[in-house]
């Protein structure tokens, strides 16, 4: 989910063509990536990872960028009635994702290795020690670290150039999504809209104080339920999600959330312009490397 929200944050940095800049003004922001370009970088990194692991004597299978394409992000409230009628809160999608994780050939391969061999494979993939690798202080506080060795670091170095620079920039900007959502949720206008949404839901027979409470009521695992009980739970989930989407539109919560989401996206891009543009520059440079990397593999 965080990926699409982040793409939205980065995409809005697009600006006028370089030729339209006034003399002496700041350079135009780097062009954000499109969906196909993001997928190309992902696929290239996956190929580099597999190549590196093969050289270390291990196997690795490609992980798709979007394992379940139907998965959608609703950071504040479900507001798509059609999607809600088909997926409810997405429990069917989550079940598919869970099955994919269980059947993941990489997981099965690692679990099937002898203990010592498994440890060696994990070290080859992720590196051995984070203490000597790059670190970054996150925008909301806290520090993230990453090992500077292993195939992940090697693949990202080949694709993005300076691994430490890429790790710091990507990790920092990835964390802007959560900060943005927290700022939106703290807005008085958002809180009032949530109360209006709750009143609408109660009028439809769904007494929930906020969308998160409604969603949590339908995220319990279905394991152990009879078919009849599972069908009833699914029907209740879909009915509640549809009501949520209708109330999101009718109460104004959807419009308020979208407006505040844009506002805080703009503020964060201004506040962290250097980091956001740095990531875009690194990604654009990586696209130029892809052809050479493809011909060298």
UniProtKB/TrEMBL annotation:
Residues 124-149 are annotated as: Disordered. It comes from Streptomyces qaidamensis. It comes from the Bacteria. This is Lipoprotein.
